[in-house]
Structures are given as structure tokens and as C-alpha cells.
Amino acid sequence: MKVFKTLLLVAIAVIVIGMPSSSFAATAACPAANAASCTSTLTLTVTVQTAVWMQFYANASGCAISAQNTDLTTGTIDLGNANGLGVGTASSCVTVTKVTAAGPPQSVTSAYYVTPYDIFTQVSGFANGTATFTANPTAFTNVTATGALTLVESASGAAAASMTALPASTATSLGLTTPADTGAGQLSTRQIGVKVTHQNGANTSSASAASTTITYTITAT
Amino acid sequence: MVRCVWSAKPNRRPASRIWLAGVAMAVAFFCATAGWAAKTLTIAGSTLAVTPSTCGQPGPGNLNCATNYGNVNGLGVGTSTPSLSNNQPTSAIYYAPFTITAGGFGGGGVTVTAQVTSNFTHTSLFDAQYCIGATCTNFSALPVAPATAASLGNITNGNSVTLTLAIEVKNVNGTAFTGNDSVAITITGNSGAPSETLTASLNDQNAVQLVLSTNTGLSGATIGGTTSPFTLNLGNVNGLGVGSPSVAGVTMTKSSAGTPSHVVSANYSTPYSVTASFCHFTTTTATVSMAVTTPFSRNNLTIQDSSNGTSFSALPASFTSGTTGTATTRYVGVKVTHANGAGNTSGSGLTATITYTVTAGP
Question: Which of A22, A148, A180, B316 counts the highest number of beta carbons within 10 A?
Fold first, then answer.
């Protein structure tokens, strides 16, 4: 079974603040007669807005992400074939972790297919410059049996125990607060994958790829 | 026939005063009783005074009259007593009406002409023009002798014609001059009328002006105001260059660096026109310098200048203007550095002031 993931971004905000003052050595104001020099002034006005930007990058040891390093709104990552027993050859960019029940015999209850990926964020115009995130996935296509396929995410490591399930249609905090962006952006390495449950029945596998679209929301302060 | 004009006969033997007085009284009595009076063309000014006030009236010593246009300059800036028709970038025209009244001409009146009989010393800077009427503003060049004099028309006895006399002060450089100059205009009547010469003098001054305006040719953002202070609103900006500029004519360019590539800054700029005007200097160009005199209240905002819209540098900066009255295209931009924290936060309607100084000469 092939699993596709689609990554999305977005968010923005605006804030308001005050004004300045200063001085200048005086020459005659323009126009001026009986003079060889005069001054005119231009008052320049701008409204500075806050801005946030988020991009997904393939980690050096992770799966490729399409359209990375561009101002994309949607990128994709392909985790390859997956099954509920964790058998066979998975994509080289994926770490497979089997979860077994206490035995004997030790039966496989599920298998995790996980890859590292990077979230690169830039924020500007904020008081702190830090950012937090939520992820909100749609339900998987094709493999729709309850519990058969679950999207998981974590801060680090591919261990099953560290993975947090991201239920469909729910904005779940990633528990990530970036350090302050001091002008060069912040790169955060994360893990994302699927948990394939050892089960059978209708819609527990598919001939074509199962996919979910995850909407990431960045909130800067 | 007796011509009622006053004349002197220097080669004759001196006559006694009593005898001369007697002759004069007899002639005056004869002219008066015969209906003949002295022929006069009296010149008077309403805006500008004519000296002596008896200009053109019978009697010796008042055939050469004068008037003063005061301070003038080629840009028409400052206050002036004569009226001003500003014909920039070519010239400033200072004008004032003078009435010419005919007397002693009988029923036929007198046909009057005018011409320049002694031109300005600086003819590359000044010329005399005229029109007939008290409110006319469409001037013609006043012929310079020996060219045929301009006709001012026929004035019936006891009536007048208004001659509006204009002095064009040209907005040119290459010849440095300030100070006094004058032009002598001779007004002549036929039928034996005397010629009156009106000498118009002026005090020429240098002048400078600097105007900023929208560069319509390059579809620049709107510059507000026709005189200083000028205004320019570049609209919404941000340090990541996210989104499109909110103001027409503004271009945004991002600068990026590093791996992963991050936005270092975003520059929001527009072309505009800078027109420096200056007159009666030796040099035909001026220096325009620009400095930020009131900065934005944010540390991450930098005002930049460019001559080509590609290569920007922070102010202060300067450039050499074109000839007087010629617009020069410049680009002004605000660079928003990707930054956070105190002094770098967002803000609405933030303002800064750029002071432009134009220096001409020598």
C-alpha cells in the first residue's frame, strides 16, 4: 500500500505602533530667491506588517519532498509501501517500527512507517519572533476502515512510543515552539509517518495510494 | 503756423530774461487764444511709479522718465510689485500697465509707437515685451531699434492708451549675473509730438527651486503636493516580502541568503521625478543631495535611493541634476529587514522625512 502525504502552510497578522521625530540644519526652503541653495522635503509613509512564512524541507536522511525551497502552498511526500505487519521492503527513507503484543507468541499489532522532515519558518515584525504550530489532516483516502491507518508525528525519533497521533479533521498542536527568529529563520526537524494497524476487512488496504492532506498553521508572537 | 513745443537755441546771443519771458507769455497767449496747446504724451503708472511724476508733461527735463521693476528672477519666485506670469521652465515675465495720455493734438489725435532704444546689457537674460490693454497677458516682443517700432495705435486728444510693459527674465544659466540692468523704451507720437523715453530698471537675483513629482512615464507611485513638503505612501510592507505591494507603482524585491535560503530583507521602491530649477549661475547643472532628517521609528526600516531602480544604497546620497527645469528620474525605496523584537515590530502609518537640498552655482 502506498501512502502520500500533502503538506500545506499559511497564516498572517498585522500589528500597529507609533512614530518618531528629529532635526536638520536649515537652509532656505524651496523655492528661494537671492539664494544658491534651498531645501524641499518628502514625507514617506509605510505600514509595516507582520509576516510569517513556512516551508517544508526534506531531511538529509528523510524522504524527498516535492517543490521544496519554493514559495509553494502545497508539497508532497511519499512514504512508499506499508503494511500492518511491517514485513517486506519499505522505502529506504522510511524507518519501520513494529509493535508487538506481549507473547508468546508475539503477534504484530501495528507497524509504523516514519521519516524525518524539516519545517523551516521565517517570521518578521513580531515582538518575540517565536512560533507555534498545529496540524490538521484530512481523513485518508482508500484505506478508510476505522483504525487501519493513522497519521502520526513527533518531535524526534522514530520510536512508536514517541509518536503522537493526528486525528483527522482536528487541529492538533505539534508541541513545537521555535526559538526566536533573529533574521535567518528557524529550522525544526520533525518526524512524520503512518501507523498501519494489523487488521483485516473491508477498506484495510488499497490497490492505489492512500493519502491525506495536512494543513499546518503557524502562529507567531 | 506756430509749433507749440519748448525748445532752446544755444547759438543765439543771450537774450534778457525779461525779453524771453515776454516772448513766452506772448506765445502762450497766442496758442491759448488760437486753440493750440503744447503737444504732450504723458506717461503714468498705476502698479509701478513713473518718475518724475510729471513724465511727458510740458516743460524741460522730463522727457526721460524711469520706472523700477524691483527684484526679479528667472523662476518667478518670491514676491514682486509688478504682476507675474510664470512661464516655467522658460522664463518669468514681470509686467505692469502704463497709461499714455495724449494732449494738445486737436481732433485727429496722435499715432503712437514704441521701441527699445537702449537694450538690456544682458540680453541673454532679459528682454522687453508688451501688449495693449490693462489686463492683457499675451505679450509680444518689443522691437529693438533700428527695427520698426511697434504701433500702440491712435490716441485721440485727451484720451489714453494702456501699454502693459513686460520684462521677461529667462530661466537660463551659463552666464552668472545678479544685480541691476535696464532697458530704455522710447514712445513716439507723430504730428510733431515729443518722444518720451521710459527707462525700466530691475534688480536681478539668483533663484533655486526643487520639485518632486510622480514619474508617470514609469508608472511610479503618486507623489503628493506641488510644493514642499511632498508626500509618498508606499503602502503595506513586510520583512519577508510576502504578498504583493498594496500601492500601484511600488515594486518589491527580496534579498535572500543562506541554506535553507531565508529572506534577508524586502525593498519596496518606486520611481519618481526630481526637478531642480536654478537661474543665472555659471554652471548649468546643480547638485541635489538627499538625507534622512526624520527616520522611521523602526530599526529595521532603511530608506534607500537608486538612479536605476536596481542598485540601491542607503541615504545620504547625491546626484547631479540636468539643466534647469529638467526632470531627473530617481528611485526611492524602503528596505524592510527580516527582524523581530523591540524596535522591529509592525506599525501602521509610519513616517520618515527625506530632505532634498539643491545647490547651484557658482
Answer: A148
